[in-house]
Amino acid sequence: xxxxxxxxxxxxxxxxxxxxxxxxxxxxxxxxxxxxxxxxxxxxxxxxxxxxxxxxxxxxxxxxxxxxxxxxxxxxxxxxxxxxxxxxxxxxxxxxxxxxxxxxxxxxxxxxxxxxxxxxxxx
Length: 123
Hints:
Layout: H1 9-26, H2 28-46, H3 51-60, H4 62-81, H5 87-118
C-alpha cells in the first residue's frame, strides 16, 4: 500500500499557482509569452468579429503556456539530474524547447485561419 498523500483539488491548485508564479519570476520566455498574450487579448476583444471566434483565439493563447511549463519542468529536472554536459541532457532540453516552438506555430496558425474565416477572407 502506498503512502501517497490524499488528493486535494484546492491543495493541488495551490501547487499549480505556485508553479505559475515561479515561472513568472524566473522564466524570461514565459514572461514574454504572458506579455504578448495580454496584448493579444486586448486586441482580440476589440476586433469586430463574432464572440465564438474570440473564444477560440483566447483559448489558443493557453497552448504556449502549457508547453512552456512542460519545457521548464524538463529543463529543471535535467539540470537536477545531470550536472555535467551530456548529449542526452541536451537532447531532452532541445526536444522540450521544440515543443514550445510547435505550440507557438500552432497558436499562430489558429489565429491566422480563425481571423481569415472571421473576416470572410476564406470560406
